[in-house]
Design goal:
3 domains, 30 strands, Immunoglobulin-like
């Protein structure tokens, strides 16, 4: 028996049609070769579906939606017998043009579907577009027929993650990366053995939703190079992967290429978190282009002043109206789609504090969108991570209105560790809090609410943090005014590159100090890709526009700085071996080892004043064995000396069967800087350990 709703009821210029289904929004395949098109607009008065053959400048059909094809505020129709793999589509909306009331309808503009699952127009990265084409970003139709072969999201415990933040293009674009298709999803698959060797179990990708790398493109007056929208924090569409990141993008296969990458990462025990940008779009302010939302329903999608101008809490020209029910549902639909269709493990929300603003731009205590995402059943096991601030000064680290469901990028951790490493003893008490997982900030939520990081894409790399006192952003063409001036960096005596062996040695030591503190800290550590082999951006702390060797990882440095890579790798492995470093609670009380789970010491045992300014401190972790076997209890002691002089530290007494063995000494060079499990040498004195200037010694009891 054939379904009645498979029969066309209308015909227009030879195309067979019928009223469609309002949900889901977007373009969806239906039985018998039809495509269901559905789009919302509350304020439009008329809508047309515009169909193109792929790449054609002129449409082959422009189909008005009959009145009976409108259901509430949704225009929907099924078009039969389309060769969906070879068409592109958009919409024309007619309605009032009244900017003061927030309406910008223009029937001449062809608009991208906000729910488009694939987008044409930028299929090959950096290929100059045809600017004479009025329809730059074109919706395409996707058939979700990928065979996952039983693979599913990994659902690792938050406390067990070691996150590796990476840019899809920058990770492998450099000629030294030695991959078949540099700068693509496919090339990351070739780096999976490397990621496993390093020991990370989660990769966080900078934005991969379709964006326009030519947005604000210009020639740098300093270098003569073309500057691009390299980072991609400016989405054109939220449901489509960036075709230019796919080796097969020119063939329209970016969806499958990305799914193959995710499938293989999961098969190798590596989760995938996406950096998502729901705070603004690529349409900019009043002078920005019509791409999608502005022409479909400007008043619904954006935060507008009473005069009809765009609020700019994002610093990028406009702000999405995230707590409007329609926009809120779009964001929810988007995340559900990526979680279900792409098996994504979690999301990091750029400038997430914007999600807490109401339709007038005011912060609200219980934002509907944040609660909705936290309680959604499909996202129930997805990691949700907030960058808990926005570009208009709303800073919510520790106060992001999320309950226990959300984690946060801990900017307080970054700042405190940077200050302490370079020699600011005033933050010693804060360092205690940060290493314990920031109980002063996340007391009710637990340490897994804290994403601990010292560097990220936004700012200096770890190598640059110890090589530059000041940013060097002239190549960005903004007279060095862009990027933060508050870097808390120290160049160790010379600005930039140097052949001085003493300064080189000190910089290496400082990098090892940073990663040691990071991986000993409770919470979730995040590493910037390339830091593990001292990658540099040559002092640029805002490389958002640099599609060149400033931003691309130089893999030749892996061989040159193998000592740093080995130290990173070994510290990650050490963290994995010790659950006491990865707990989801803040207990510091005595446990069945007879010691506090965490205790703090100065040069003398039990003599540490967290209110005093100091550069010398020590921490003792006591880790009971799960089988109540006291012989197997673990003790970890880290003597941290950020002073420029050597100091002796009194060592804790141990149960009679145990002695202190050396795990790491950041003041030593390879191979005596770190030791693998089972090979740690016993130290000569069990009563005191001497720690060199600006060094950390890590011990384990055996």
């Amino acid at each position: 028996m054939e379904r009645v709703d498979n029969y066309p009821t209308h015909e227009y210029q030879g195309l067979k049609l019928r009223r469609g289904h309002p949900l889901p929004f977007g373009a969806t395949l239906v039985p018998d070769g039809g495509v269901n098109f559905s789009i919302f607009s509350k304020h439009a008065e008329d809508c047309e579906l515009v169909l193109f053959e792929k790449g054609a400048k002129e449409p082959f059909a422009v189909i008005p939606f009959p009145d009976e094809f409108r259901i509430g505020d949704v225009y929907t129709m099924i078009v039969f017998d389309l060769d969906y793999e070879n068409i592109e589509y958009g919409y024309r909306m007619d309605g009032p043009y009244d900017p003061q009331r927030g309406h910008l309808f223009n029937k001449e503009k062809i608009l991208l579907d906000p729910y488009a699952k694939a987008i044409g127009g930028r299929e090959v990265w950096g290929e100059e577009p045809d600017y004479s084409d009025d329809f730059q970003h074109r919706g395409r139709i996707v058939d979700h027929d990928f065979d996952w072969q039983g693979e599913r999201p990994l659902e690792k415990d938050m406390e067990d993650l070691v996150i590796y933040e990476a840019h899809v293009r920058g990770l492998t674009k450099h000629p030294s990366s030695d991959v078949k298709h540099p700068g693509t999803f496919a090339s990351i698959r070739e780096k999976i053995p490397y990621l496993k060797e390093l020991g990370v179990n989660c990769i966080e990708l900078l934005p991969i939703f379709e964006f326009d790398e030519f947005e604000h493109s210009r020639i740098s007056p300093e270098t003569g190079e073309r500057l691009m929208n390299y980072w991609g924090y400016s989405a054109v569409g939220f449901f489509a992967p960036k075709a230019g990141y796919a080796a097969t993008g020119k063939y329209g296969m970016e969806v499958d290429e990305l799914k193959n990458l995710i499938k293989e990462l999961h098969e190798n025990g590596i989760e995938v978190i996406l950096d998502v940008v729901f705070n603004h779009t690529a349409e900019g302010n009043e002078r920005g282009p019509y791409i999608s939302y502005k022409g479909i329903d400007n008043k619904t999608y954006y935060l507008l002043t009473p005069q009809g101008y765009y609020y700019n809490f994002s610093g990028c020209g406009n702000t999405l109206n995230c707590n409007h029910p329609v926009v809120r549902n779009m964001i929810l639909d988007c995340l559900r789609y990526w979680a279900s269709e792409y098996h994504i493990d979690g999301f990091r929300f750029d400038l997430a504090s914007i999600l807490s603003r109401d339709q007038n731009g005011h912060p609200i205590p219980n934002p509907p969108i944040i609660e909705t995402l936290a309680e959604d059943p499909i996202l129930g096991n997805c990691k949700l991570i907030a960058e808990a601030w926005d570009a208009a000064g709303l800073y919510q680290v520790g106060s992001f209105p999320s309950g226990s469901r959300w984690a946060e990028w801990n900017g307080e951790y970054r700042d405190a560790v940077r200050k302490f490493i370079k020699g600011n003893g005033d933050v010693a008490g804060e360092i205690v809090q940060r290493i314990e997982g920031s109980p002063d900030i996340y007391g009710e939520r637990g340490p897994t609410a804290s994403i601990n990081f010292i560097t990220c894409h936004d700012g200096f790399t770890l190598k640059d943090l110890v090589s530059y006192n000041h940013k060097h952003n002239k190549a960005n063409g903004e007279n060095n005014f862009d990027g933060t001036n508050n870097n808390n960096s120290w160049n160790c005596g010379v600005e930039g590159e140097t052949d001085d062996p003493q300064i080189q040695q000190l910089r290496t030591k400082q990098m090892k100090n940073a990663i040691t503190i990071l991986l000993l800290s409770r919470g979730v550590p995040m590493i910037l890709s390339g830091d593990e082999f001292a990658n540099t951006q040559f002092g640029n702390n805002n490389a958002y526009c640099q599609d060149n060797e400033i931003s691309w990882l130089d893999w030749d440095l892996l061989e040159e700085n193998d000592n740093i890579f080995n130290y990173f790798k070994s510290m990650i492995e050490f963290r994995k071996q010790h659950p006491v470093l990865r707990t989801d609670h803040f207990d510091t009380d005595y446990n069945r080892t007879g010691y506090p789970e965490i205790s703090w010491h100065g040069l003398n045992l039990w003599e540490f004043d967290p209110s005093a300014s100091t550069l010398t401190m020590a921490v003792l972790f006591a880790e009971p064995n799960d089988k109540y076997d006291t012989e197997s209890d673990q003790f970890i002691y880290a003597a941290i000396n950020m002073h420029w002089e050597m100091h002796g530290y009194e060592l804790p007494n141990l149960p009679r069967s145990k002695e202190w063995h050396l795990v790491a000494n950041t003041g030593m060079e390879q191979p005596e800087d770190i030791w693998s499990a089972g090979n740690e040498p016993k130290i000569d004195s069990q009563d005191e350990v001497l720690v060199g200037p600006r060094s950390i010694i890590l011990l384990v009891a055996k």
